[in-house]
């Protein structure tokens, strides 16, 4: 059996991260669990504008995936999920969905509102995602593309696009924002 290409392998890891109930399908409820993790981790209300923006961004992605699947489906198997992501295409012309997700995630993580994520803000995010402090520095460094000791919204967006695009990096750091370790 041939080894899957790196994008397929990353998307399978994303599927596994989303399928928290382990029913072998991803549904909108799985995406809502991601949003709720931010609610809990940051102590925000479900009605907070930051949470609503995050929910809208994930809803747009979910609808885009469903549009690539068999009509009438409200859940995706792993193979359907991978195929839908590939068919959705997240290249330069179709990256608005990822840009919206990146902006929403960035807004939540930027607790002090200074338009950049510092090491402490990033460490807080990793803590509620159950990553170790030892991982934080290495992951932060990989995300900080311009080496200014902060993560910008642009860097979050670039990392999310890199996760969804064809490249050979199995551990592209953008997966961290999607729950993929």
Outline the structure in words.
The structure is a single chain. The chain contains 8 helices and 2 strands. The longest helix is centred in the first third of the chain and has 20 residues. 59% of the residues lie in helices and 2% in strands. The chain has 181 residues and is mainly α.
**Number of alpha- plus pi-helical segments:** 8
Derived from helix and strand composition plus strand pairing, the structural class reads: mainly alpha
Principal-axes shape call: globular
Q: Order of strands across the biggest sheet?
A: 1-2
List the uncertain runs: none
Distance between the termini: 25 Å
User: Could you spell the SSE succession in H and E letters?
Assistant: HEHHEHHHHH
Radius of gyration (CA) equals 16 Å
Report strand %.
Answer: under 5%
Largest β-sheet summary = 2 strands, antiparallel
Approximate helicity band: 55-70%
Task: Please tally the β strands and state the result.
Answer: 2
Mean pLDDT: 90
Short description:
The protein is globular and about 45 Å long. It has 181 residues and is mainly alpha-helical.
Give structural attributes.
two-stranded antiparallel sheet, mainly alpha, single chain, 8 helices, 2% strand
Helices and strands in order:
Layout: H1 6-18, E1 26-27, H2 28-42, H3 49-68, E2 75-76, H4 78-88, H5 96-109, H6 119-128, H7 133-143, H8 153-164
Antiparallel strand pairs: 1-2
Helix pairs in contact: 1-4, 2-3, 3-4, 3-5, 5-8, 6-7
